[in-house]
Amino acid sequence: MNGRFEFTVLDVSAERRAASPAVRFRLRVRSDGAPLHAMVLRVHVQIEPARRGYSAGEEMLLRELFGETNDAAGDIRPLLWYEGAVALEAFSDETEFDVCVPCTYDTYVAGTRYVTALHDGEIPVGLLFSGTAFRTSASEVCVEEFRSEAHAQVPVQTWHDAMDARFPKQAWIRIDNVTFDALCRYRAEHALMDWESTFAALLGVPR
After folding, report:
1. Which among 83, 97, 101, 197 counts the fewest CB atoms within 10 Å?
2. How far, in Å, CA of 118 to CA of 124, rounded?
3. What are 167-190's pLDDT values in tens digits?
4. What pLDDT score does 68 carry?
5. Domain 5-174 indexed as CATH 2.30.30
6. pLDDT for 166
């Protein structure tokens, strides 16, 4: 790991201006060397489940994803949340920048299944950085490869705020075409106006 660049998470918030749900990480990078002409940065964001504890209810919901978390909490592997790239302009000592990490209700995505199982608290996140820094002098351009990392605790509520900004009080499931066609026939046969009424009728839930 190259110690010439230090990355720090300054803030995490729901990004309400994005076209789709996202969490915005406000980051700072500091350099202990000469001024930089530019930096091309690759960002790898992962959820680190082993860095927090879980209630009995959360463990039950996470069992399908991780197995028995009480027995192997330290062995749970990180879950990839996001990979992307950022280009930074020239700076001397430090600069700040944003990384917007998308969120989804797709429960087939492991990260989504993990977050939706948490009742409250925080999501432990690791950010891995790698890339190329360009320094210039009067006679040459110096190219420097580097790796670094940072950690953050993202409030579970922040993830929900990001989702609610686009899909308030909604959930999403994926089913195969055969099941969907059967649901459509059931809805038509019973003259049901929407999917909420259809599922309520099937489950015997009064509306």
Report:
1. 83
2. 12
3. 877 777 778 899 999 999 999 999
4. 66
5. no
6. 83
181: which 2 tokens? Answer: 């066609």
Task: Tell me how far CA of residue 64 lies from CA of 49, 70, 170, 204, in angstroms.
Answer: 14, 13, 23, 27
pLDDT, position 107 = 67
DSSP string over 26-75: EEEEEESSSPBSEEEEEEEEEE-GGGS---HHHHHHHHHHHS-HHHHGGG
Which residues does the chain have with pLDDT short of 70? 1-3, 68-75, 107-108
What letter represents residue 15's amino acid?
A: E
Specify the pLDDT at position 123.
96
Amino acid at 202: L
* Strand segments (E) across 122-194: 122-136, 141-155
Identify the DSSP state of 78.
Answer: P
Phi-psi category of 3—alpha, beta or left, where left has phi over 0 and alpha has psi -120 to 50?
Answer: alpha
Amino acid at 195: W
66, HSE (Cβ side, Cα atoms, 13 Å): 26
Residues of the chain with CATH 2.60.40: 5-174
In eight-state DSSP terms, residue 77 is P
Residue 162: per-residue pLDDT: 93
Q: Is 185 helix (H, G, I), strand (E, B) or coil?
A: helix
The Cβ of residue 132 has, within 10 Å, a number of other Cβ atoms equal to 13
- Contact predicate 158/125, CB 8 Å: no
DSSP state letter for 91:
B
